[in-house]
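Continuing the series of single-chain predictions for the mutant panel. This is the parent chain; the variants come on the following pages.
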Amino acid sequence: MTPKPISISIVIPNYNGAHFLESCLNSLFTSISLCPTTHFEIILVDNASSDNSLDSFRVFQNLNKSSMNLKFKSISLSANTGFAYAVNRGIEASVYEYVCVCNNDLTVHQTWFKNITSTISSNKNSKITTFFGLVLNKDGTKVESRGLKFYPYGKAENIDNGQAYSLPVIASAARQSHPYLIWGASASIVVYHKLTLLKVGLFDERFFAYIEDVDLSYRLNKSGYKTLFVPDAKSFHLGGGTAGKNSFLRKKLTFINWLKFLKKNYATNELLINLPGIILERFRLLFSFFL
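Parent structure:
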């Protein structure tokens, strides 16, 4: 049976990321070149950068405009609107069936799209609409994420975050090589079925940055949709390239956005049931914030 054709729009939100973009775009292009039957478009959504991000993108576009299966778009916003707003504008401008959200400080292994598109093509479960690969740190020595794990007291964590990327970390060879279901996906690099996003709602723009991917994963789960982890699709993430991993801004927004998340998504009885854990987790975040 011939696999169904796949088409993917890649949305890259950007704010003063010119020093990351060249590596990111080149790695995407190399991976795309191994999928000649798949149609792609790269959409850069720029959050009013003051550097030469848009010039860098235009140079890349001009160098690769002859590619038969790749198109380009750029969207210039008038202010720094944050991650969720920028990505949503890219999704709305996209024309293909699947949307890949990709951070500007990330590079992909050359087989990333080959492995992702192969998994999508062979998927027969209509409820599996999100596809997430293995995210490693910049030099590939540690795991950043094997997907998101969610706790009902208002916490989500990247599975195996910080662990050495080596076979002893893996429970079994099967877990390393075969796709399996996870609760949700980080938006560092992830592929969504576009119509599913339109059904459940795009990223919540009230989250300027951080936790917006948890919120979207939560809504996808509530609607019965599932996320598949594809271990062979590897990427490499600098992490916190725009705001910094442990920046004051990141900690502040994370604390505020969890409060927004709980208020938005939890009924009164859910808040009461999980209240002790919610309070403890908020104090933990506060301690981290002031530290």
